[in-house]
């Protein structure tokens, strides 16, 4: 089983960035919850744990301690940017190589594909969650909360779903997760017998 630890940034007394009537802590939780749902509902062989499932205040150490003690295979830290820019970027720890860099490349590509965000690049930074985690870790910054155009997108549930889908698809590709088998339905016609149905399903008709 692949263990994915999702860390929605900020929370509780720490709202994170703010702009256009939005709070970063709420957006990251919404995206994280959607990523979790996609992974668990659509893929097999994956376990997901979140650093917070509500509006809790957590220190950075509490977040990495939880991921480390669980033995996560990957830590995803979700954030929304601020400071007057636009678009998407992500971060790994400086100097880190494969497999983290490989995961970054795959997830980055999927998020850009799903969201059509302006691509601000794949970057590195000495952030606590990247430095103190004992597994590959990626911190993502999905849009700028203080940019009116980005904020308008972040207000829409459909766009948050696209962001989440990009993250989830990227993780699934990076870890070669298999899709769950979908049930096959057969429309039974009036007068159709079980014998005829079984022959049809077997391709003998």
UniProtKB/TrEMBL annotation:
The keyword Hydrolase applies. It comes from Bacillus infantis. One of its GO terms (molecular function) is N-acetylmuramoyl-L-alanine amidase activity. GO terms for biological process: peptidoglycan catabolic process. SMART domains: Ami_3 (SM00646). Keywords: Hydrolase. Residues 64-172 form the MurNAc-LAA domain. Pfam families: Amidase_3. SUPFAM superfamilies: Zn-dependent exopeptidases (SSF53187). GO terms for cellular component: outer membrane-bounded periplasmic space. This is N-acetylmuramoyl-L-alanine amidase. It comes from the Bacteria.
């Amino acid at each position: 089983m692949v263990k994915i630890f999702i860390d929605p940034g900020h929370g509780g007394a720490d709202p994170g960035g703010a702009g256009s009537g939005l709070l970063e802590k709420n957006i990251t939780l919404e995206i994280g919850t959607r990523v979790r749902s996609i992974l668990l509902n659509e893929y097999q062989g994956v376990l997901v744990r979140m650093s917070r499932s509500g509006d809790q205040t957590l220190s950075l150490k509490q977040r990495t301690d939880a991921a480390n003690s669980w033995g996560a295979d990957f830590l995803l830290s979700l954030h929304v940017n601020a400071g007057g820019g636009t678009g998407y970027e992500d971060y790994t720890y400086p100097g880190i190589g494969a497999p983290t860099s490989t995961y970054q490349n795959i997830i980055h590509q999927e998020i850009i594909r799903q969201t059509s965000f302006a691509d601000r690049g794949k970057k590195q930074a000495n952030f606590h969650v990247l430095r103190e985690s004992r597994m590959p870790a990626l911190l993502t910054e999905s849009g700028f909360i203080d940019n009116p155009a980005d904020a308008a997108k972040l207000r829409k549930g459909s766009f948050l779903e696209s962001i989440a889908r990009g993250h989830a698809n990227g993780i699934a590709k990076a870890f070669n997760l298999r899709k769950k088998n979908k049930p096959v339905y057969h429309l039974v016609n009036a007068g159709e017998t079980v014998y005829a149905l079984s022959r049809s399903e077997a391709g003998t008709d």
